[in-house]
Amino acid sequence: MASRVRFSRTIFSPLPSASALIPSGSLPPASLSLPLSNPKPYRRLRLPFPPSHLPPPRSSPAGSASPVAAMSSSSYDKELAAAKKAASLAARLCQKVQKALLTSDVQSKADKSPVTVADYGSQAIVSLVLRKELPSESFSLVAEEDSADLRKDEAQETLKRITELVNDTISSEYSMSVSDEDVLIAIDSGKSEGGPVGQHWVLDPIDGTKGFLRGDQYAIALALLDEGKVVLGVLGCPNLPHTSIANLDRHSQNKIGCLFYAKTGDGAYMQSLSDPSSNAKIHVTATENPADASFFESYEAAHSLHDLSKAIAEKLGVQAPPVRIDSQAKYGALARGDGAIYLRFPHKGYREKIWDHAAGCIVVAEAGGFATDAAGNALDFSKGRYLDLDTGIIVTNKKLMPSLLNAVQESIKAKNQSASHL
Ligand SMILES: Nc1ncnc2c1ncn2[C@@H]1O[C@H](COP(=O)(O)O)[C@@H](OP(=O)(O)O)[C@H]1O
Ligand SMILES: [Mg+2]
Ligand SMILES: [Mg+2]
Ligand SMILES: [Mg+2]
Predict the structure, then answer these.
(1) In the chain, which segments carry CATH 3.40.190.80?
(2) How far apart are CA 202 and CA 325, in angstroms?
(3) Higher pLDDT residue, 13 or 291?
């Protein structure tokens, strides 16, 4: 079945040039518009253009209205409330930057500075909010970004823009204002190595940077490790529809902006990013029949071997085409049952980072699913900034996992055999 592909105009950076901050090889393609007569054998999650969301700033703290957190008497309640607030504020900053990016008249400008601005701004906000909300606790943060490039002379304009954005965003919640130096220090608090001892926050300030650039999916992903285990996780997904993306074509006008959260032993929940009182418990799908299952994978072929996923899905008997989405929004969507399987097989030599999976893993686990590597081992977040794992990551519900693992291992074996015959 060939699913309909959605199309949208893609526009890039109007913000000040900061070419020194652009990682090489990561520039977006000039245009992603595709001819309507060329449907692809996969579903691509796109948004209507221009996005009609972008909720107004809230006057109450992001996590405070949740009866769920308030009712629970177990540990990590205050950490979870702080994490929700931090991720929600960071999401607001990212939305502002993405809105400027998408509504600009400047098309296809190969300048990634808005992404850089949003990544740094989001990391600074999360760091500042966690310190502010949890002042008496020791603070260790393992995060993706650092300030080295921002300290260069040519980046001073960009740094000012980030500080402005951070101040604009936090002023709705706190009567404080930060300087450029405060922002740099907040960003660099993310240099912790993590590990098996003590508590460490784990942050991806924007996961799915390429999706963010295209106006597609991205996530603010924040988790807490305690003695090497993930004990809570929050995923802010500003562009994810409130209702299932399995029916995206029918519901494309639905509201978007979801906050997923989970705390060990307490289940997983989703609320609207713009309405914290809307929370609901979520569960992975109960499907046991692969023919009824659909699977998620990275939009970017550079991030995951699409051919291998296809072979696995075929072996398992999955009928639906893959749904390609950027970021840990995949974990959130799977946790609420939009799809049954997430397959991720990076190219040889790539090392997965803990911030790309920690928050997503606990959200899925608390919703009744689980994530393993291709050998069936649970992911180990206690080894520092990287995940040491066998071949890839697979995520599904407990009923499908045994047959999925089988299909994964047989497909990898067949792939290796055919490679050795070349
Ligand atoms: N060659 C590669 N293989 C696998 N993952 C990669 C990769 N290059 C980058 N990534 C990671 O893939 C993440 C995005 O995942 P997805 O494909 O699911 O959207 C990126 O997160 P960032 O966008 O935070 O850098 C990055 O960490
Ligand atoms: Mg990431
Ligand atoms: Mg990132
Ligand atoms: Mg990155």
Answers:
(1) 290-420
(2) 22
(3) 291
Cα torsion 216, 167, 182, 156: sign? positive
Task: Name residues whose C-beta falls within 8 Å of residue 81's C-beta, 6 or more positions apart in sequence.
Answer: 61, 63, 64, 66, 69, 133
Q: Which segments of the chain belong to CATH 3.30.540.10?
A: 66-282
Q: Which amino acid is at 315?
A: K
The predicted model gives 67-72 an average pLDDT of 35
**Residue 394: how many CB atoms within 10 A of its CB?**
25
Pocket lining: 366 vs ligand 1, CB cutoff 6 Å: no
Query: Is the separation of the CB atoms in 51 and 254 below 8 Å?
Result: no
Nearest Cα residue to atom 12 of ligand 1: 303
- Using CA atoms, how far residue 353 sits from 208, 246, 381, in Å, is 13, 28, 9
State the Cα angle at 209 between 206 and 215, rounded to 5°: 105
State residue 137's pLDDT score: 85
Instruction: Please tell me the distance from the alpha carbon of residue 296 to that of residue 304, in angstroms, as a whole number.
Output: 11
384: left (phi over 0), alpha (psi -120 to 50) or beta: left
Question: Is pLDDT above 50 for 292?
Answer: yes
Identify residue 304 by its one-letter amino acid code. Answer: S
**Phi-psi region at 163: left, alpha or beta (left = phi > 0; alpha = psi -120 to 50):** alpha
Catalytic-labelled residue, pool 163, 169, 209, 396: 209
Whether residue 158 lies in the annotated active site = no
Q: State the number of CA atoms in the 13 A half-sphere of 363 facing the CB.
A: 31
Q: Does any ligand 1 atom lie closer than 6 A to the CB of residue 92?
A: no
Q: How far are the Cα atoms of 78, 131, 133, 167, 298 from residue 173, in angstroms, in the given order?
A: 17, 14, 11, 10, 35
Where are the alpha helices (H) located in 253-369, listed in sequence order?
306-316, 329-335, 358-366
* Catalytic residue check, 209: yes
pLDDT of residue 248: 62
The complex's ipTM? 0.99
- Are 142 and 195 in contact by the 8 Å Cβ rule? The answer is no
| Other CB atoms within 10 Å distance of the CB of residue 93 | 26
So what CATH class is 66-282?
Answer: alpha beta
Domain 290-420 of CATH type 3.40.190.80: yes
Q: How many other β-carbons are positioned within 10 Å of the β-carbon of residue 31?
A: 12
